[in-house]
């Protein structure tokens, strides 16, 4: 679409990180009210989906949360870097502070 309709050159690129899906569940658990949700699961029992009951019964560890947080930060840093590169391709009028951060001065 971009190449045909807009005359752009499209270059496919790998985002620079492995699939973060395994860390996603730990991030959800880390950012949730596990105590409250576990109490709700005890009350509702089989009215909750098996997946959610299994998720809430997992004994999450600090290491799992730490690793998931490190993966989240790595992905965010790579996304930010890719966004700057993409912005540089879309516009040669980046604010001076952004050019300075990326060593253009």
Q: Tell me about the biggest sheet?
A: none
Helix content: 55-70%
Quaternary arrangement of the chains shown?
Answer: single chain
Helix count, per DSSP? Answer: 6
Q: How do the SSEs run, as a string of H and E?
A: HHHHHH
User: How much beta, percentage-wise?
Assistant: under 5%
The residue ranges in which pLDDT falls below 50 over 5 or more consecutive positions are 97-105
Mean pLDDT: 79
Q: What is the general shape?
A: elongated
Structural class: mainly alpha
Number of E strands: 0
What distance lies between the first and last C-alpha atoms, to the nearest angstrom? Answer: 35 Å
**Radius of gyration over C-alpha positions, nearest whole angstrom:** 21 Å
In terms of topology, how is this protein built?
Elements: H1 2-6, H2 21-30, H3 34-44, H4 50-57, H5 62-90, H6 96-101
Helix pairs in contact: 2-5
Keywords:
elongated; disordered C terminus; mainly alpha
How would you summarize what this structure contains?
The longest helix has 29 residues, at 62-90.
Describe the overall structure.
The protein has 105 residues and is an all-alpha fold. It has six helices and no strands. The chain has helices at 2-6, 21-30, 34-44, 50-57, 62-90, 96-101. It is elongated and about 60 Å long. The two termini are 35 Å apart. Residues 97-105 have low confidence and may be disordered.
